[in-house]
């Protein structure tokens, strides 16, 4: 009898332990299932791909020089008694530049007047007041008005991009906010072996006659222009394991309530000024992830927390 009571107690204890363990296992399975059902949602910022213009250019610098100069000489030998002009001054044809006194001790002659041979700007005055000169000495050097020239130098690795006739834009600190235009006029037939550069000469329009030789210019040589191309900010592109791609934000076809990131492999073209041409992979109007893409994988759920205005369609 006593033995039966002990067996009943042991069986009850085992039953209670089994029920407790079963309940614990059920709770663990439920917790694991809940964790599996939880989905990570990535916050991203986006912008729209646009169709528009893009161009490639080389940014250089150079000095403005006269494309052609003319020297002024005296008809008589003597001492320069007067200078009527200074370097940088604009003069008209036949305007007096200097006076030369041919007189000698005991002999007095009428002074000779050195006149401007062309309308232009005085770029040099080799002769100085009081200097004795002959007819072969240059009194003044004038640059013709209208057309000036910029001389700049291109590294040898970019020589293949250069050709005569390419359009050029110039800006100068002397005229902030103003753009001047020109074109490549001449390419040097040789490369400097010391600097490994090639000289490029650029004709500059100076119709308003405000540009002067000696000014420093920032130069953009336009090497390629395209219209009707898809472009996006360059920072949207991810480069990983030899691939370059972007993530677009799209509706999940399996669940229209979800927004997901789709990986789109792209082929990039011109890259300039933080924008890039997309030759294939996405179309204009696609919503492209601009920030937060480094953590994304194809098909993950995303939430757009910020949008950036699309690029301008023009340059």
From TrEMBL:
The keyword Thylakoid does not apply. It comes from the Bacteria. PROSITE patterns: PROKAR_LIPOPROTEIN. Residues 1-22 form the signal peptide. Keywords: Signal. Transmembrane segments: none annotated. Residues 153-223 form the CusB-like beta-barrel domain. One of its GO terms (molecular function) is efflux transmembrane transporter activity. Residues 69-136 form the Multidrug resistance protein MdtA-like barrel-sandwich hybrid domain. InterPro entries: Beta-barrel_RND_2 (IPR058792), MdtA-like_BSH (IPR058625), RND_pump_MFP (IPR006143), YknX-like_C (IPR058637). One of its GO terms (cellular component) is efflux pump complex. NCBIfam families: RND_mfp. This is Efflux transporter, RND family, MFP subunit.
């Amino acid at each position: 009898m006593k033995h039966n009571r002990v067996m009943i107690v042991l069986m009850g204890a085992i039953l209670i332990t089994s029920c407790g363990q079963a309940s614990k296992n059920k709770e663990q399975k439920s917790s694991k299932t809940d964790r599996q059902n939880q989905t990570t949602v990535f916050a991203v910022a986006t912008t729209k791909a646009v169709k528009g213009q893009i161009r490639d250019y080389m940014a250089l610098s150079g000095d403005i020089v006269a494309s052609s100069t003319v020297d002024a000489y005296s008809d008589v030998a003597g001492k320069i008694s007067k200078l009527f002009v200074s370097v940088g001054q604009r003069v008209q044809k036949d305007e007096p530049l200097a006076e030369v006194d041919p007189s000698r001790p005991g002999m007095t002659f009428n002074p000779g007047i050195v006149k401007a041979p062309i309308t232009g700007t005085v770029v040099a005055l080799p002769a100085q007041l009081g200097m004795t000169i002959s007819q072969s000495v240059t009194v003044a050097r004038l640059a013709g008005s209208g057309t000036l020239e910029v001389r700049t130098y291109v590294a040898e690795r970019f020589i293949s991009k250069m050709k005569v006739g390419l359009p050029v834009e110039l800006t100068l600190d002397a005229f902030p906010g103003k753009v001047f235009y020109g074109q490549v006029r001449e390419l040097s037939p040789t490369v400097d072996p010391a600097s490994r550069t090639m000289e490029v000469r650029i004709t500059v329009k100076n119709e308003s006659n405000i540009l002067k030789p000696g000014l420093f210019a920032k130069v953009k040589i336009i090497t390629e222009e395209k219209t009707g191309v898809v472009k996006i900010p360059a920072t949207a592109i991810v480069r990983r394991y030899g691939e370059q791609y972007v993530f677009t934000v799209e509706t999940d076809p399996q669940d229209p309530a979800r927004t997901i990131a789709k990986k789109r492999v792209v082929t990039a073209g011109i890259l300039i000024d933080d924008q890039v041409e997309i030759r294939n992979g996405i179309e204009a109007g696609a919503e492209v992830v601009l920030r937060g893409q480094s953590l994304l994988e194809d098909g993950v759920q995303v939430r757009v927390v910020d949008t950036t205005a699309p690029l301008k369609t023009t340059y």
